[in-house]
Amino acid sequence: MHKSLRIAAVATACAVAGGALYGAGAATAGQSTANSTHEPYNIGLLVKDIDAYYGTAADANGVYQASPTSPYAKDLASVDKAARKYIDQAARKAHHKGEKPAVVFDIDDTLLLSLDYEKRYNYTYNATTWADYVNRADRPAVFGSPELVQYAEKKGVEVFYNSGLSEAQRSAAVENLKKIGADVNLDTDHVFLKDKANPPSYLSACATPGTWTCTTVQYKSGTRAHIEKDLGYEIIANFGDQYSDLDGGYADRTYKLPNPTYFVS
């Protein structure tokens, strides 16, 4: 996951934005400017707010975990409830029309929680420490997300994954997803990762072998376009913790999960 920017948002603002459906045409809803002219929020207090939002606490092994009774967990439950109701209705409608319904999930902080990394490294990003962390394949689940993957499959909806993780991190990502119970369609035809060395032809507008200029939105929306146009699916829902996971179209409905720890443009 390449984090081009790490801008922590106030936890209470994220709670509102994360708990609500991210509607079409609201690409910048909930985002606050990084160029404010007034004094920024005190970073020490902000970290305390983030801890309170997640209910952050170290477990017996010293791993920072989110609390299942935290505001974060409650916001996720709200998103999950709305998504389940919609998937049920949209899947039945799509099947009636003879369409092939699909859902698309981001991975980092949509399915696999990275709170321990963020907390341990003080909300900063380093490519080496991040790669080591991902390759351990022991991140906990984002509350409710593995169950939502299973729910979609039971409703006859094809599950795809669209992640900013690199192709080199595939085995670790798949292993970790299996551990948390999101063991659905984890083959290369359904798990899309960044392959900068050999990018797929459907991203040719911004990527060629050895040259990658795709923004997150171009990469993710281009992948969704491939799922719809080339593979013949109708993406009824797209899930992500970043607005860049959701922008660019090719999804009937999008759901923004809360994440106040970093921002990817």
TrEMBL record:
Keyword Glycoprotein: yes
InterPro entries: Acid_phosphat_B-like, APS1/VSP, HAD-like_sf, HAD_sf
SUPFAM superfamilies per the UniProt record, alphabetical: HAD-like (SSF56784)
UniProt feature coiled coil, ranges: none
Pfam hit, one: Acid_phosphat_B
First and last residue of the signal peptide: 1-29
Matching Gene3D superfamilies: HAD superfamily/HAD-like
Keyword vocabulary terms for this entry: Glycoprotein, Signal
Protein's UniProt name: Secreted acid phosphatase
Species this chain originates from: Streptomyces canus
